[in-house]
Structures are given as structure tokens and as C-alpha cells.
Amino acid sequence: MLFSRISRIRRAGSNGCRWFLSQKPHLQFLNPPAYSYSSTHKEQNDPFSLVADELSIVANRLRSMVVTEVPKLASAAEYFFKMGVEGKRFRPTVLLLMATAMNISLLEPSLRGPGDALTKELRARQQRIAEITEMIHVASLLHDDVLDDADTRRGIGSLNFVMGNKLAVLAGDFLLSRACVALASLKNTEVVSLLAKVVEHLVTGETMQMTTTREQRCSMEYYMQKTYYKTASLISNSCKAIALLGGQTAEVAMLAYEYGKNLGLAYQLMDDVLDFTGTSASLGKGSLSDIRHGIITAPILFAMEEFPQLHEVVDRGFEDPANVDLALDYLGKSRGIQRARELAKKHANIAAEAIDSLPESNDEDVRKSRRALLDLTERVITRTK
Amino acid sequence: MLFSRISRIRRAGSNGCRWFLSQKPHLQFLNPPAYSYSSTHKEQNDPFSLVADELSIVANRLRSMVVTEVPKLASAAEYFFKMGVEGKRFRPTVLLLMATAMNISLLEPSLRGPGDALTKELRARQQRIAEITEMIHVASLLHDDVLDDADTRRGIGSLNFVMGNKLAVLAGDFLLSRACVALASLKNTEVVSLLAKVVEHLVTGETMQMTTTREQRCSMEYYMQKTYYKTASLISNSCKAIALLGGQTAEVAMLAYEYGKNLGLAYQLMDDVLDFTGTSASLGKGSLSDIRHGIITAPILFAMEEFPQLHEVVDRGFEDPANVDLALDYLGKSRGIQRARELAKKHANIAAEAIDSLPESNDEDVRKSRRALLDLTERVITRTK
Known about the structure:
The structure is a homodimer.
Chain A: H1 18-21, H2 47-50, H3 52-65, H4 71-78, H5 90-101, H6 104-107, H7 116-148, E1 152-153, E2 156-157, H8 159-163, H9 165-185, H10 189-210, H11 214-217, H12 220-245, H13 250-277, H14 289-292, H15 298-306, H16 310-316, H17 321-333, H18 336-356, H19 364-382
Antiparallel strand pairs in A: 1-2
Helix pairs in contact in A: 3-7, 4-9, 5-7, 5-12, 5-19, 7-9, 7-10, 7-12, 10-12, 12-13, 13-18, 13-19, 15-17, 15-18, 16-17, 18-19
């Protein structure tokens, strides 16, 4: 039986965001991990090079999926899919690794039967999820940059800066519609529904950030909910979509979802830390862009628990740089940065445990992909940029 | 056999937009119309009052479909669904009438069997198409108003004017995502694909209008293609979706599509005429908003065929009001308004013929709905606002 060795996911302890962790599903598995996250896996293949060839296929297909006969719309839509400005491709990497990590037909070669063409077909469908996810992600970047009046992105001018707000809004809409057409072509309405919900989450998260009240701004619960919507929903639900297309059970699909969700949360928490520390790991060396835009993130929220006086500083806003310095003073005296890192680590661990809880496999490709997914949970919390 | 009396759709003659009419599908039906459009049907029920109760159901459900926990997003999303600012509800009216006009289970009561619940279920699904269509329509209005920097809509402040561009962009995205979730719930991937394609068309049409070259601005072909994308695609494809959900044949679905497409084109052509004439039917009494925004529509395109000198005027642009007056002079001397009206009439007739070509029915509800759909083809070309 494939599910003979499903490990128990350990409950994370109390850490100031009880609400969010309590959202963890009813995963009650009984056995120890098939293998545990350890230092040995670090010597294994790099996650990105493991799927490099497939990432090229996905990148090429993305470029062909956004072709349109209206020249300006075509330039706008392909802007962030052009060679060299495709970003870190974190999401497609995770999704392709997840596809292999769960691939039952790879797990049991004897079950393949005449289905090798089926295996290829399934892989193409899972690649399509990676493509759709990138389209939704880029569409949200285009609209976010319009909302924030941003002038750069991925080291080049933002689309709104280069082609104007109008084309950036239209190109975002266009990518969403193409994503929806591609989704429909998968002929799986649960998957359509899952990813449509993600678009709603992206919008909800962005609006939550834009329209916080005084209380919400100081609430860890609100912050974690917003972070889930803005960052973790896309990767978690697309991981789940990969599982659903693969015909996995609801339990395995939930493990895929948990991996994506917790990896996404860990990623964002570290992003928030790095905004204060930058690569130097010392306070105030980051870009400080969140706080300067009045966005309160985990480090400050934790610092507030130690120094309630910080509330007043936050209430005054951060247009005055002296106020930013004052907040940094409090943050420096507090355990805010440390606790945010710890929370990131906790979520990275939960993500790793989800991988450990997948049905056992002796297939070398499957094991390699799982090691790479574990490797990503470490990279996310040790990264310096 | 239900399809024993499918009538022939007459080909429209040459009228300066051959390209577009040549796109008409392979509709080769053999028999005369089951009944023809005549003055007698005018005495029948008003199309809008025929579906008034159902329109209220749709309106209520729309309000409940856009509910969200984030207060600002909720106000923004429901803005144009509130009582009194729901617009003419032209699309849901057409779609509900079309649903009855094609309802096979109504055509043949003997076929209903134990399926009365099924009939209700189908009707609810068809109503959902009307709701989704309205959501897509309003989403496109919200984004268009941001692009055009419009300050009013439906007699009240535009959403961007009242709540700012950011919330208007986000509310548009939100409505699209909710429309997509609702679409997925219908569990019919052909319908998902059809309406996702419409969103792409709306974006494409808007971009075509925004980025015309000198030649394109003077091309009737380009104008008709843009008009299809911006106006006719939504109503035609949602009419087709109503047919597909009803389990109709590809031929009947195509008739529904043809009705929607040609009604939409007729509507827009008359809109273009009214922009010049207003209610008074005399030139220059309309709002002249198209030409003042540099948008060249059918009346001017026809006038150009008679007076090639008009090209130069168009090339100079319309920032100078004297140039607008000059264009109006040429238009007044030409048959531009008249030919645009004739073209609208031609498309209205094709729409009416599509209804005449539907499988014969003796059911009074079906016949009433068909008469109402025919009535709309007349209202569209005789309307003065």
C-alpha cells in the first residue's frame, strides 16, 4: 500500500500567530517520516538545475501562449516572459519538482502498463499548471506595479513606467484571460475553481494591505492572513492542482498544499526580515521599503509585543524619517527580527514535514525531487537576497 | 423532428465591411422561417417586463455573489450592482429570453418526464450565465473608466472617481475572479473557455482602439473587428453558452451566437450614429464624444469613401474644435449617417433571421420569448438614446 508510511506532521507551538497555525488541516498521520530532512541531502542536486530543461520548455511555451495580433498588447504581455527577465522562476521550479515528487506512475513502474503516453500527457498538463501560475503571478505584478506606481521590476523598468498605466492594466487583464483559457483547456473544473480562487486571494490580500485600520495594522493575525492571500495562496493552490491532475488522494493533495503554503509563508517572513537587514544581517541595512511605505510586517509586530510604546510610533506613520529611526531603535532592542526568523523556520519545517509525509517511494527520481523540495525549505530561510 | 423547419439565413450584401460579414459561419438552412418578423409582434409583451421577475432574482444574486469580508473591496465590487444603478440590464434580458426561446424541455412537455427539477436546475444554470456576463461586463467598465479617466457612469460618479484608480483596478480583477469561480461551478469547460475568450476579446478591442495606426483608423475592417471584440463578443458568446448549457446542437448554438453578435453590432453602430445626432436626429446634436476623443466610427468611415479629403482632417486629429466642425461638414454632405444606419439595420435583420431559423415550436412561452427577441432587434435600431 502506497500510504503505509505516512509520517506525522508535528504541530507548531504558540508563536504569536496562533490563528494561522490553527488553520492547519486535520492531518493526523501515524508513522515516522519516510526519511528526514538532514544535512546529507544538501549534497544532492540543486533544485533549479534538476528541472532546468523543463523550465526552458515552460518559458518557451509561456512566450508562445501570450502571442496576440495587436502589436502593443503583444509587447506588453510578453514583457516579463522575455529571456533574461523571467525572474527566479521559483514557482515553476517548485511545481515541476512537486509533480515528480508525487508521480505515482514513476513510483510504480509496473503500473505504467501501456500508459507511457499517458505519463507524458500528465506531465504536459502539470507543466501547464506551472505556466498558468506564472501568468497569474505576472498579471498580479503588472497590476501591483500600477497600484504602487513602481518604476522598476526585475532590474528593468516596470511595464507601467515603460508603456504606461493603461497598457499595464490591459496586459494584466489579458494574461488573466489567457490563464483562464489555458485552465479551461485542462478540463478539470476543480482546478479551474482552485486557481480562480487564487486570483481573488491576490486581490483580497492587496486590498487588505491598502485599507488597513489602526487595529488591523498592529494585528499579527491580520498580517498572516494578508500574507497567505498575497504570497502563499498561489503556490499552495497550484501545488494542490498538480496533485489533483495527478489523480492523487485528497490527503496527498493536502500535503502538497501544506508544503506550498508553508514554504510561501516562510519565504515572505524572510522577505520581511531582509527588508530590515539586507545581506549584511545587521539592522537598517535593508531597503526599508515596507516601513517607509507604512507597511507593518512581522519583525515590528513582534517588537510591539515587547515594547507597547511602539504602537504610538506606528500610529504616527512613517513619512517622517525620524519616526523610521525610532521604530528601528525599538526593533534593535527587541527580539523582533529573531522571532520573525524563528517563525519563518517553523513554517519551513512544516513544509519539510509535508514532504516527509508523502507516500514512501524507492524511485530515485522521486527521491531526488523530494530532496530538492526539502532543500528549498532550507534555502528559503538561509537566503540573503 | 425538432429541426424540421430551419430557415435559411439570407446573406447580407456588400456594404463596405465585406470582411466582417464574410466571417458569418456555414449556416446553410433550407426551409422558410417558422414565422417572420412582422409588425404584429410589436403588440406582444415588452421584452424587459417579460423577464422582470427573473431579472430581480439575477440582480439579488449578483449582490450576494460579490460579497467579501474586506469592507472597501466589498463596497467597490457592489458599486454598480446596487439597486437603481444596475444599468439597462440589456444583456441579462437577452440571455433569459434566449434561454426560454431555445428551451427544448418547454418545447416538448411530454419529454419532461420526471425532469421538472432538471428543468429548474437548467434554468438556474442559465441564470448564472446572465450573472457571469454582467460581472464580466461591469469588470470591463471599471477598468475602461480607469483607462479613460472617466468621472461618471450610469448617472453617478465612476468608481475610479469615487474610490480611486487603485480600488477600481482591484474591484475589476475581483469581479473577474468571482466570474471565473462561478463559471467553474457550472462544470462545463467549453463554457469556461468561451467566456474566458470574451475577456481576452474585451482587452483586445480596447487595446486596438487605444493603439490604432493611421491606416487602421481609416479602415472599416479594423473598426468592425474592434467593435466585435469590444461590444458583440460578450453577448454573442454568452448567448452561445446559454445554448450549450441547454444541450442544444452546434447548429442551434451557432444561431444563438449569430443573434447575439449581430444584435451587438447593430447596437454599437446605432450608438455611433447617436453620438453624432443625439435624440434630435440632426447632425452635431449628439455628445460628439467619440470624435472628440479621436475615435473614428462608422459614419465618418462611410463619409470618407465619398470624400477622400476627410482623410487629411482625420490625420490632423480632433484636439482643435475647428477640425471637429470640418469633419461634421463633410459628414453632413455625405451619406455617412444613413449608411451607418443601414448597416445597423442589416445586422439587426441577420439577428432576427437567426431567431426565425430556430427549430419550430408551438409552445406559447417559447414563441413569446422569440417575439421579444425579435422586438429587441427593432428597438436597437429605432432607439434614440
